[in-house]
Structure formats: C-alpha cells, structure tokens
Design a protein that fits this description.
Elements lengths: L6 E6 L23 H5 L10 E5 L2 H21 L15 E8 L13 E4 L2 E10 L5 E4 L3 E4 L5 H12 L7 E8 L4 E6 L5 E4 L7 H7 L10 E7 L2 E6 H6 L12 E6 L3 E4 L7 E4 L7 H7 L13 E6 L13
Parallel strand pairs: 1-2, 9-13
Antiparallel strand pairs: 1-16, 3-5, 3-8, 4-5, 6-7, 9-10, 11-12, 11-13, 14-15
Length: about 325
C-alpha cells in the first residue's frame, strides 16, 4: 500500500463485522478478513502505513455529516447560474428581426419583405437568418451586426442605433427562431436521450429531464450527475424534487447523466455474506449495509471490531480528533 496515500479508518465498537471499502490489502487478510488486533495496531503495522484509525462517536459522526453537507453546498454554488434569465446568442442560432418605423416611414416604406400597419406605424419583418461562424448577421442598411455573447435585447439595441439616423424613430425586436448554439445533453437512465436547447429564461435540471421523457427507474434510486467544464456534481433526484434550491439552472454545454445505483460498498469479514451492496441515491448507513449482507456471523464476529475503510481528502484530516 502506498505510504503516501491519504486515508482514514473508522473504528466502531457497536457491531461485530468487518465493512471493508478498499482493495489491495490481501497480503494481511486471512480467509474471513483481518484480525481486529492487526487493524488496531495500525501505528506499528507496516502494511497499514499511511492510514489513520479514528474512533467513531457522536461528535465524529456529526462532524462527518456537517463536512459532507458543507462540501455539497460549496459544490452546488459552483454550478449555480448567476443570471438564468440571460440568453447569450451564439453561432448557429437563427434570429428574426422586426422593425417598426413611425409615420411617415422613411426607410422601409416600400420594397420591404413583409409589411403591416400597426397604429399608423410601418412594421417590417426581415427574413430569418443564422448567426454565422464569425458571430454576425447582416441587416439591410445597418451592415454586419455582432451577435455572439449578446442578448436579444442587446442585438435589437445595436440595430436601432445603426438605423436611428436613417429611419423615422425605429423600434426593433429580435426573436430567437432556432437555438443551435447552446444546448444541454441528457443521457443515461432516461426514456429518450436528447439534446435540450437553451431558451431565454433558462432550463433547470428537472425541465431537462422532463424533456428527455423522465427517468425509467424509481426516483429514489436515481442520481443525477451534472458535468460542466471539467467539474462534476452528483445530486439524488429525489432531493432535487424535494428541494427546489437544488434544481439548478443549467448552461449551454452541460451534460446531465441519470445514473441508476451508481455506487456500491463492499461488505466482507465476519458477516453471513460477502457481497457488494448498492447505495440508494440518498446514501446508505452502516447498519443498512450490514443488514443487506445478512447480518453478523455470531460464531466469528468480534463485538469490538467493526471497521470502515474509506479514502478521504487530506484537507479534512487536521480537523479530526487525534488518531488512535
């Protein structure tokens, strides 16, 4: 085992089994798992070098719960969209422009593609066009209009500024006809894997899942994984439904993956069965994992030797109780 490995180990003297969540230690494991004495002597056991052994108590359990909760909140903040109502146009989007000119119309009085009268003003509809790879669209009399990274209102304001000295009090409205620049990929345990286009106003996690036809497994057994720019966030679907705060607004390029029972814990040692136990989306307790392995083996179990092996972040270790 790598001496530089940052791991910790919890010891709980309330049950009699071995719950082991790591591999690579076969050299010191007898048939039914390591002896309690070998693990308790972690400070002098070269095979366990780099592992901390920490007693489980109420304070430790509360600390772990708080740390997990805080880590979850910190990760959630990274995925929050500070301005979900803002839609930034990009290459590939198709836009349509409508221009109203107050009477008497000076620029679009004749020869326009489509005209209608509204309260005495003249409305002209410019044929829809796609934002090019250079990020621009072409407007009659206004020339190239840069669109990439701008909202529809900002593009409309730019067009109006270009026309204001040629048209009579022009008013401009820009409409998004088709979105090709920004979309969300939804895959995994959903009815239909799909690309969900972003829209002005934003798309949330639940809206994207609904657009894919929903999940096909029970909600309480599905975890939603959100991937964005190299970062990954996992949220139980049941918790997203229960807590609207976790139904984050997505961004173009996000990948949503619905995972069915993505994690397992390995239970072995003095239990009636050696097996991998599936996590529920919201987690699983030590007692639940032991129960699913058939409970304790009364002929072998040591009532003071329940161990949980887990890799943890090195940054957490200095704040924990002094290792034993």
């Amino acid at each position: 085992m790598d001496k530089k490995a940052n791991t910790w180990m919890i010891r709980a003297g309330v049950m009699a089994a071995l719950l082991v969540g790591m591999t690579g230690c076969a050299s010191y494991m007898p048939y039914s798992g390591p002896r309690a004495g070998n693990v308790n002597d972690v400070a002098h056991n070269k095979a366990l070098a780099g592992i901390q052994l920490v007693d489980v108590n109420y304070a430790m359990s509360r600390y772990m719960k708080d740390e997990i909760g805080q880590s979850h909140l910190d990760a959630l903040k990274d995925f929050m969209n500070p301005d979900p109502l803002r839609y930034a146009v990009g290459p590939g989007d198709t836009l349509q422009v409508y221009i109203w000119e107050a009477p008497p119309a000076m620029l679009f009085a004749t020869g326009a593609a489509s005209m209608s009268r509204l309260s005495g003003s003249m409305m002209t509809s410019i044929p829809a066009q796609m934002v090019g790879s250079d990020g621009d669209i072409m407007m009659p009399f206004a020339g190239k209009i840069p669109c990439t990274g701008k909202t529809l209102n900002e593009i409309g304001a730019e067009i109006r500024d270009r026309l204001i000295h040629m048209a009579h009090d022009p008013q401009v409205v820009v409409r998004l006809v088709k979105n090709h620049a920004q979309s969300i990929t939804v895959v995994g345990n959903v009815k239909n894997s799909t690309m969900v286009p972003m829209i002005p106003g934003g798309v949330s996690v639940l809206q994207a899942i609904a657009a894919a036809g929903g999940v096909v497994k029970p909600v309480n057994k599905v975890t939603i994984q959100l991937s964005r720019s190299g970062k990954v966030l996992q949220l139980p679907l049941e918790e997203i439904i229960r807590n609207p705060h976790e139904d984050v607004s997505l961004r173009g390029g996000d990948v949503l993956t619905a995972l069915y029972k993505p994690l397992q814990v390995t239970v072995m040692g003095a239990t009636k069965e050696t097996k991998e136990v599936d996590f529920q989306a919201s987690g699983i307790s030590l007692a639940q994992a032991l129960a699913q392995a058939g409970g304790l083996n009364g002929n072998q179990a040591d009532a003071k030797a329940v161990f949980v092996f887990r890799f943890e972040k090195p940054s957490l270790l200095p704040h924990w109780p002094k290792p034993v």
